[in-house]
């Protein structure tokens, strides 16, 4: 196995061990968040209040030795509240840049669907190019800049649907579901002791320095994927554009995201090669939020996950 992968796999094991000191259960969610970070993309996290969406992002930032900032999205939030602005300094008789919270490594965009489209669009350039434009000047962001945007799936009053172009910028939609009974018992028991989530988070040690994270990302280039598997994942994405239940399918960016996600998933599973199971495991988080289901199928109760699973069953798997 390649030397770079030999460094990556033990590092990921240490990271997961530290994260699970704070986040009880949610193993699949933690792995998906790590895949997003390793591939240099962004994630939309969906879950009911109190499910630890914010805590997950804060914990990952601490364990990976990265800066963390949070923006609470509200209807009156302005783009300058995110990016920052130039303020006139009377003492120096010049304008000085006051950087906004976007100048960080890990950004939590909390309840992103509560802000109007103009404010949401302030994130688009940063997410795509890792650059921020303020008063016709362009400023670079951290190479590890990652957006974790949260939204509540059951609350629609006072919210703005995310534009399709913005949803496509998110590699994954990570769905955080309610914990299993044993995990919830462990969470309840934690409140009886002195180890609150905040105290536990403070005790977590960084496993990786921010500078090392870039080197670990390069290790994914050594994960092999056969040409027939690339053709398989492209066919899965293309099938979403012609399937009878889909009004709008996934674009080419979905194929790119699925390819990168499969390689990272293989590395997390301690393999240096991609299998069809990696593609099947990553298809739902990559494709779900990019699909628009036809109304007649929605009325029948079909959701995006069911559509993706149906498509996976119809596209032949290479041997």
CATH evolutionary superfamily of the largest domain:
P-loop containing nucleotide triphosphate hydrolases
Strand order of the largest sheet: 2-5-8-1-9
Any idea of the CATH topology of the largest domain?
Answer: Rossmann fold
Report the CATH architecture of the largest domain: 3-Layer(aba) Sandwich
| Helix percentage range | 40-55%
What's the level 1 CATH class of the largest domain? Alpha Beta
**How would you state the average pLDDT, rounded?**
87
Order of helix and strand elements from N to C terminus: HHEHEHEEEHHEEEHEHHHHEHHEHH
The biggest beta sheet reads: 5 strands, parallel
- Class of secondary structure makeup: alpha/beta
Helical run tally? 15
Low-confidence stretches: none
Task: Write up what this structure looks like.
The chain is 46% helix and 15% strand. With 319 residues, it is of the alpha/beta class. It folds into 2 domains: 3-220, Rossmann fold (3-Layer(aba) Sandwich), CATH 3.40.50.300; 223-319, Helicase, Ruva Protein, domain 3, CATH 1.10.8. Strands 2-5-8-1-9 form a 5-stranded parallel sheet. It has a two-stranded antiparallel sheet with strand order 3-4. A two-stranded antiparallel ribbon has the order 6-7. Helix 11 (227-239) crosses helix 12. It is globular and about 70 Å long.
């Amino acid at each position: 196995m390649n030397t770079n992968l030999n460094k990556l796999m033990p590092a990921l094991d240490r990271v997961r061990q530290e994260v699970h000191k704070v986040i009880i259960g949610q193993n699949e969610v933690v792995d998906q968040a790590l895949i997003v970070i390793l591939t240099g993309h962004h994630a939309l996290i969906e879950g009911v209040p109190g499910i630890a969406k914010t805590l997950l992002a804060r914990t990952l930032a601490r364990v990976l030795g990265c800066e963390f900032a949070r923006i609470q999205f509200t209807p009156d939030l302005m783009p300058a509240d995110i990016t920052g602005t130039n303020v006139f300094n009377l003492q120096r008789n010049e304008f000085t840049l006051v950087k906004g919270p976007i100048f960080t490594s890990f950004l939590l965009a909390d309840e992103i669907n509560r802000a109007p489209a103009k404010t949401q669009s302030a994130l688009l350039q940063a997410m795509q190019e890792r650059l921020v434009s303020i008063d016709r000047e362009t400023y670079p962001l951290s190479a590890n800049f990652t957006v974790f945007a949260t939204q509540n799936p059951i609350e629609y009053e006072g919210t703005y649907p995310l534009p399709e172009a913005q949803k496509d910028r998110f590699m994954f939609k990570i769905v955080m579901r309610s914990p299993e009974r044993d995990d919830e018992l462990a969470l309840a028991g934690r409140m009886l002791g002195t180890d609150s989530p905040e105290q536990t988070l403070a005790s977590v040690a960084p496993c990786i320095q921010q500078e090392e994270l870039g080197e670990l990302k390069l290790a994914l280039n050594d994960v092999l994927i056969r040409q027939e598997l690339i053709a398989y994942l492209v066919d899965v994405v293309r099938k979403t554009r012609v399937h009878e239940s889909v009004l709008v399918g996934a674009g080419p960016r979905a194929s790119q995201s699925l390819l990168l996600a499969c390689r990272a998933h293989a590395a997390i599973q301690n393999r240096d090669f991609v299998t069809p199971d990696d593609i099947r495991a990553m298809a739902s988080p990559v494709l779900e939020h990019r699909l628009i289901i036809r109304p007649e199928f929605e009325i029948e109760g079909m959701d995006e996950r069911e559509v993706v699973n149906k498509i996976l069953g119809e596209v032949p798997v290479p041997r």
